[in-house]
Design a protein that fits this description.
Blueprint: H1 9-17, H2 22-51, H3 55-95, H4 114-130, H5 135-147, H6 151-172
Helix pairs in contact: 2-3, 3-6, 4-5, 5-6
């Protein structure tokens, strides 16, 4: 007979493996605040250049004001992509479809051995080719591309997975 307050060993192991995200969130928050201060200072400098009334000053001022606008857009788009990727990762993990690489051999750097990553990619590619319109398959092939070292295709496929996820949400009415 099992003790009354025994827990599922699998859930205990999962909880032990999950890292505390608070330090990363604090670091991201600090960096965003620092960038905002920098953008305000840079914008203020641009306004000062425009106020000097010289043609060169006005041109430089406009250029300097454009830099914080581009910076805000970059910060926003990067954060939005990261949040969306985390959302997909959470759903995939909850469904038990995340690629399990814990048992695969790794290099000293922590990356998968090249031939193992290529084999994993080949398996996931077959899955994706069977149903390329399912965001889960697209997410998994994006991860496989990343494990295989092709970051450019991994990013492209992850963007596609996010779009498919949103389209699936609209189609289901949620």
């Amino acid at each position: 007979m099992a003790p009354e307050n025994s827990e599922d060993p699998g859930s205990t192991q999962k909880a032990a493996k999950q890292k505390d995200a608070r330090p990363i969130v604090w670091l991201i928050g600090f960096l965003i605040v620092a960038l905002c201060v920098y953008f305000v200072l840079l914008g203020w400098r641009g306004v000062g250049l425009i106020a000097d009334d010289g043609v060169a000053g006005i041109g430089l001022g406009i250029g300097v004001i454009i830099l914080p606008i581009i910076g805000v857009w970059l910060v926003y788009s990067t954060l939005r992509a990261g949040i969306e990727h985390q959302q997909l990762a959470r759903v995939i993990t909850e469904e038990g479809r995340e690629l399990d690489i814990s048992h695969l051999p790794k290099r000293p750097s922590g990356r998968l051995e090249r031939d193992v990553a290529d084999e994993l990619f080949a398996q996931v590619k077959v899955e994706w080719e069977a149903d390329p319109d399912d965001w889960r398959n697209t997410y998994r092939i994006a991860r496989a591309y990343d494990y295989a070292g092709d970051r450019t295709r991994a990013r492209e496929m992850m963007k596609r997975a996010v779009a498919q996820y949103h389209d699936a949400g609209k189609a289901s009415g949620s």
